[in-house]
Amino acid sequence: MKAPLGLLLAVALLTGCAAEKPKDEAAATVPPVSPTASTRPPKITSEPPVDAFAQVVADGRVRITGTCVELVTATLNWVLVGPAAAQLRDGQQVRATGVPDPNRETGCTGSPLLVSSVAPV
Known about the structure:
Layout: H1 2-19, H2 25-28, E1 56-65, E2 68-72, E3 77-81, H3 83-86, E4 93-100, E5 111-120
Parallel strand pairs: 3-5
Antiparallel strand pairs: 1-2, 1-4, 2-3, 4-5
């Protein structure tokens, strides 16, 4: 009979400790929500914000590895995405125009570029 009584006493003691108010009332208060704060969830889009990135024009050689379409330039590799990129063939020399899309996950090596146009060089 002592074991259940001891367990009950321990639970009551822990519950009583949790119910006590903290000694520092200022630390326990939560600041009020600003009346101008938005309560709507953020808007999620699949396209990059075009106005946040400058348009890029890059010349290079197309390299296709599996499903990755890359533009190999003198300074870096772009992973070309979008309908215009789907028409390219391995080894072509092209000038690609597009907008960087750093948040896109491609599984490819390089910086994603959402291509708006491609022209042979």
